Amino acid sequence: MSTRLRVQALYRMKNMAFWKEKTLAQMNSEQWELLCDGCGKCCLNKIIDDETEELYYTNVSCQLLDAQQCQCRHYEQRFDFVPSCTKVTLDNIAELTWLPDSCAYRRLYLGRSLPSWHPLVTGDKQQMHALGMSTQGKVVNETKVKYLEDHIVLWPLKDSD
Ligand code: SF4
Ligand code: SF4
């Protein structure tokens, strides 16, 4: 069990549903980090149509994404490897409309609740993976892909309460 999941389990055991009691602005940095479900969808390459500005997800992951664990291989140093990586913050969450509807930050920002499969609710990532809400086993590393256009997929758009 990772450190993050141990902390998640601890919060759950103590019934500290901070995501129900606090606004995003009231959360401390540890709680903010715990909100991330670790789905990996934000680490997928996306394409924006020049003419329509429509956004398309691909199944092509950032080079640093561990496809099985759905985690960044160098999370703390990620900006050294991928300067274009985006840190989700209170200040930019309103602008990050490309985040998937299932993203915990987007859900709470839009006044929704965490889904029943969220690791903070269930205690681990198994249900999220089983429901297909993560990238686990479904992505190709960008170092192995020539044309992003050949990899447009719809599954990252799936959301479920
Ligand atoms: S999409 Fe949102 S919840 Fe999922 S890994 Fe990215 S930041 Fe975390
Ligand atoms: S650097 Fe890490 S966190 Fe950023 S997009 Fe890549 S895998 Fe995701």
From TrEMBL:
InterPro entries: Puta_zinc/iron-chelating_dom, UCP006173. Pfam families: CxxCxxCC. Belongs to the UPF0260 family. NCBIfam families: PRK05170.1-4 (NF003500), PRK05170.1-5 (NF003501), PRK05170.2-5 (NF003507). This is UPF0260 protein TUM4630_05500.
